[in-house]
Amino acid sequence: MGTVFTIDVRAPVAAASAAASVVDEVAAWLHHVDATFSTYRPDSVVSELAAGRVKPADCPAEVTDVLAACERYRATTDGYFDCRYAGRFDPSGYVKGWAIEQASKLLEQRGAVNHCVNGGGDVQCAGNPEPGQQWTVGIVDPHDRSRVLATVSGERLAVATSGPAERGGHIVDPHSGDRPTAWSSITVVGTRLAEVDVFATAAVAMGPLAAGWLRKHGLRALLVRPDGSVIITP
Amino acid sequence: MKRVIFAITGTVVGLVGLLSFKSHGVSLAPVANAPVPTGPVPSTPVPRTPAPRSVAPAANGTHAAPKRYAGPAVQTPYGVVQVAVVVSGGHIRAVRLPRLTAFDSTSQMINSQAAPILVRETMSAQSARIHAVSGATYTSEGYLQSLQAALDKAGR
Asked: Given Cys at both, which of A59, A92, B74, B103 links A63, Cβ 3.0 to 4.6 Å?
């Protein structure tokens, strides 16, 4: 249990002491997110909200911001991204990408403008790994995790991959209640991780509708079928 | 170049900065069936990462062995935090924030169905100049066998 984070910070913040300080802050932020949003912690704000022990109006702004974002994305994804599915309130599908994206902004604010943060396979990059070089993220073959299917490059680059089995559970189509089987994995690429993370999750839930929905929204994605065949959108 | 690896236990309260930013273009290059070579290790040595110990940081060293130093163990309201820093090469990595459950769904945990993953992929990832990998979510257990772990060890 628990997500592993890798924070890769390049020059100009490369001196160990400055790096330690800025990475400390990122670690602190992620722990704060955990304390606030974890559905496994009965004392988290989200758990208290879910249990009705506190009202949204009494929550910290960041919680209400997350709730509002989840609601917007529920609409954008035609209900396939739904943090209130089956009567349970669980925004973790949005929180992870959002937390990492916020960590990236924090790094920038501290002068660490060239960095790559990877939280359990959700990646947010900014700047350049080396002068004139772009960040390159490999997309793992869901059928053989020792292989890389494709790479994607960019400077401000966000990459999120979802699959039917995720975070120890399963993605469910909120409309049918079924587990979608059309795709082994869907990777969505963009510049902002919170959003591509939501779209990747929603796309998996959409099943056969995913490629069309991603194309309609002009999203760059790599979709892998159980037979190993691949679609790239748009 | 410098590489820094942190092992952080416990929790602290932190601050958040919010910024606006511009977007950049993104290119996608499919790699059709990129096989994993089982050939020899490439010329750049991959340093192993034993337990952290106190060592003074090097002034330079493109291929110098990793330098490690341990920060103080700090008592916080949320537990003890200790940072172990590894400096080697030109960039910094921080790894392993265990027991963060905010990112897990409330669905019941199931065992990973993935077969054990070989770490030899490090080499192909290095030669392809990949800085990070995206795939199914890595739990702490799966991380150790993941490509990302291999990249971290190699200091990409």
From this structure: A59
